């Protein structure tokens, strides 16, 4: 249930939708769960377990890139509908924009997805998402950090398919994410560096983040 006292304390509208963006391993899911718990919001998480294509994608990008992108697009769109039906009050782990702007684009530009498949994917994405009927998040929290720390966390987390993936893939994602966020203007952004906060061990970290959210979101949510 939404924690009205906390929302009021930090000036965060009760029905906000906040998406957490950032490269793999940077700490999105951890922050998503911590913020949702503090605010009493629901979470919208990515399907990693029981994802029929993710393992296959890491084993063979070229064969499975298109399938995986279609899968994530469908999943995120279903989640979007759920958030809309509940009327907000959600923290979402990864925004839909990252799928198209980072992952699908990377697959296409590296020749892992054919031009026809990429055109099909982007036209579907544009028809579904880039319309006035699609509610954008009230805030995107972009989590960033040092590359080496992110790699350490991917290893600590222990998903085998990610651990065995060539480090060049993570370097490319890291660099594309930096460029992407510098040019993103579809929703308000709060940038936080994971090295400045220790949300797992220090409660005051969350307090700082909630204060920042309230300052930015308050001026933008209708
Ligand atoms: N603030 C933090 N301090 C230390 N470890 C963290 C922190 N945030 C996340 N982690 C750890 O880093 C790993 C990746 O975090 P996760 O939230 O799963 O990242 P993402 O969702 O961005 O891929 C996990 O093992 C998690 O426990
Ligand atoms: N759109 C995507 N294309 C390829 N891979 C993706 C996409 N969205 C998520 N992923 C992968 C990256 C990770 O291996 C898992 C979960 O992401 P995380 O950043 O750890 O939450 O799915």
Q: Can you count the beta strands?
A: 5
Report strand %.
Answer: 5-15%
What CATH calls the topology is Rossmann fold
CATH class type: Alpha Beta
- CATH level-two architecture: 3-Layer(aba) Sandwich
For the record, give the distance between the C-alpha atoms at the N and C termini, rounded to a whole number: 22 Å
> How are the strands of the biggest sheet laid out side by side?
2-3-1-4-5
Helix content: 55-70%
Query: In the CATH hierarchy, what is the superfamily?
Result: P-loop containing nucleotide triphosphate hydrolases
Show unreliable segments: none
Q: What would you report as the Rg, rounded to the nearest angstrom?
A: 17 Å
Instruction: Count the DSSP helices.
Output: 10
Helix vs. strand class: alpha/beta
H/E topology pattern: HEHEHHEHHEHHHEH
Mind sketching the topology for me?
Elements: H1 4-10, E1 17-21, H2 28-39, E2 42-44, H3 54-59, H4 61-86, E3 90-93, H5 96-109, H6 115-128, E4 139-144, H7 147-157, H8 160-163, H9 167-183, E5 189-193, H10 203-217
Parallel strand pairs: 1-3, 1-4, 2-3, 4-5
The structure holds adenosine-5'-diphosphate and ligand LDVFA3IR.
The ligand Nc1ncnc2c1ncn2[C@H]1C[C@H](O)[C@@H](COP(=O)(O)O)O1 binds at residues 24, 28-29, 46, 48, 54, 68-69, 72, 93-94, 99, 103, 162.
Protein name: Deoxynucleoside kinase
Binding site for ATP: 22-30, 153-157
Pfam families: dNK (PF01712)
